[in-house]
Specification:
Layout lengths: L7 H5 L7 E2 L5 H5 L3 E2 L3 H9 L6 H13 L4 H14 L3 H13 L14 E5 L8 H10 L4 E5 L9 H5 L11 H10 L2 E5 L6 H11 L7 H15 L3 E8 L8 H17 L3 E8 L7 E3 L1 H11 L5 H17 L7 H7 L1 H12 L13 E6 L4 E6 L1 H13 L13 E4 L6 E2 L4 E7 L5 H8 L3 E4 L9 E6 L18
Parallel strand pairs: 3-6, 4-5, 6-7
Antiparallel strand pairs: 1-2, 7-15, 8-11, 9-13, 10-12, 10-14, 11-13
Helix pairs in contact: 3-5, 4-6, 6-11, 6-12, 7-14, 7-16, 11-12, 17-18
The structure holds uracil.
The site of uracil has 6 residues, from helix 11.
């Protein structure tokens, strides 16, 4: 930003038509009314009519929205036009760069180890970040994890960590860098100054039915990861009923878009596409997921969680020249657990404190014999959310103790009376609505289903040389 509050956009866009004088809204602009180089309505109309936004239009609209000059209703119209019309590769790259430029970009050069992060697009039962971050740090890298909170049926890493007594998710940039130097791992909230345009835009998309756009999802995720300053990034793009991306084609497109963006910005980026039609592991919720993550760090835990943790760890280590380190050995040695404990302590938490327990528990049992053929991730995610593990609005609190524990997974044999899953809540009145949706999740058949692969595809830059200019489809367009 320049001193008068204008970003690169304002400077780049002097010669363009449709200038508009706007009513000043920020402190800076109140002092000095300015002439805006574009009218928001023209930018919206360009995209509404299927046109391509110029670099200058993109820079300006992101900058002006961050300054409060482009109104929420204008940005929601533009987001809807983007959702319906798509964006070219070049537009997505510029949109992301403008969102990064709307705030600070962290400098992690003081961290004396290679930095590598992981981002999951969100799934049910996903707790991978908790064991993976200390594991990769124990292998010799530094893992700068800026995470978020849950919204809707998927949980958020910060909500899980806050179930550990004393754990602080707010770190200053200085504390974050210091912890990366001393422990190698830090999981905390992104500061206000990081990609502020995305912070505003994501909240707006959430209430205007414009989340499900591949260009907007890709640029939102990547702007935050690029601003965080990591040198490498492994993306876990979830596919299935419990994920944003329901089809493999959409997930591939999202993965390619993000890999292209990261690569263009100098961040070594790889994406794995992983299944999310069944919840990961047994635990869905906050404290229950922490407990399951600690089991993994102690050398146990569900096989699918351990497999995904090790697969992602190998990818992350490969990105930063540490592929000679075997994360399975490091996990077995107990060093990852030591790093977890050091990280929890460094952030004010007590790794030995008991985790919150739910007051109300209900066991749901099988009524017939056979094999579990499906446990639907979306339905189970909604059930955990109704129990209080998730929030409907950003400002809602979550219950650390609420959630689900799956006792049977696809492929398991069951007899009548066997426990299928357990519902946990602080408040018994939450159980009936959760039980109703969970009852639709489990299918029992006569034969065991074939094992479902966890990793469905891998997308990395050299395998996908793509030029700009191809039109992006929107999510859900098949
Ligand atoms: N997560 C994000 O950070 N942004 C999106 O748009 C969707 C998921």
């Amino acid at each position: 930003m320049t001193a008068d509050g204008r970003g690169t956009a304002g400077r780049a866009a002097q010669t363009v038509r449709s200038a508009q004088t706007v009513r000043p809204t920020t402190a800076t602009s109140r002092r000095r009314p300015r002439v805006e180089p574009f009218a928001a309505v023209d930018v919206i109309a360009t995209k509404r009519d299927g046109g391509r936004l110029s670099d200058e239009q993109i820079d300006w609209v992101i900058d002006a929205y961050t300054r409060g000059v482009v109104a929420d209703e204008q940005m929601s119209a533009l987001a809807m036009a983007i959702l319906l019309r798509g964006m070219t590769d070049a537009e997505v790259a510029r949109w992301t760069a403008a969102m990064v430029a709307s705030g600070d970009r962290l400098d992690l050069s003081a961290v004396d180890r290679p930095t590598v992060d992981k981002h999951s697009t969100g799934g049910v039962g996903d707790k991978i970040t908790l064991p993976l971050t200390p594991l990769v740090a124990a292998c010799g890298a530094a893992v700068p994890q800026l995470s978020g909170r849950g919204l809707g049926h998927t949980g958020g890493t910060l909500d899980k960590l806050e179930s550990i007594p004393g754990f602080r998710v707010a770190l200053t940039n200085r504390q974050f860098v210091r912890q990366l130097r001393t422990v190698g791992a830090a999981i905390c909230a992104a500061g206000e100054g990081l990609a502020p345009a995305d912070r505003k835009l994501y909240a707006l998309r959430d209430v205007t039915a414009t989340v499900e756009s591949i260009p907007l999802i890709a640029s939102s995720i990547m702007s935050k990861k690029i601003a965080e300053g990591t040198s490498a990034l492994v993306l876990d793009v979830k596919v299935g009923t419990g994920a944003f991306m329901k089809s493999l084609d959409d997930a591939r497109e999202l993965a390619r878009t993000m890999v292209d963006i990261g690569t263009a910005q100098g961040v070594r980026t790889v994406a794995l596409l992983t299944g999310m039609s069944t919840p990961l592991g047994h635990a869905i919720g906050n404290a229950v997921k922490v407990a399951e993550s600690v089991e993994v760090l102690a050398g146990g835990g569900p096989a699918d969680v351990v497999e995904l943790v090790l697969t992602l760890a190998r990818e992350m280590l490969g990105c930063v020249g540490l592929s000679h380190v075997d994360p399975a050995d490091v996990l077995a040695s107990g060093k990852a657990m030591d790093t977890w404990r050091a990280m929890v302590r460094a952030q004010g938490g007590d790794p030995d404190a008991p985790l919150p327990e739910a007051r109300e528990r209900e066991l749901v049992r099988a009524t017939k014999a056979g094999f579990v053929t499906a446990v639907d991730a979306y339905a189970m995610g909604v059930a955990a959310w109704r129990l209080g593990a998730g929030r409907a609005r950003k400002e809602d609190p979550v219950s650390p103790a609420a959630g689900m524990v799956l006792h049977r997974r696809p492929g398991d044999r069951v007899r009548p009376g066997d426990v299928l899953y357990e519902l946990r809540a602080d408040d018994a009145s939450r159980i009936p609505a959760a039980a109703e949706v969970a009852a639709t999740a489990v299918t029992i058949g006569r034969t065991a289903p074939p094992p479902a692969p966890l990793v469905l595809d891998r997308v990395a830059a050299p395998e996908h040389p793509r030029g700009g200019g191809g039109r992006r489809r929107r999510a859900g367009s098949g």
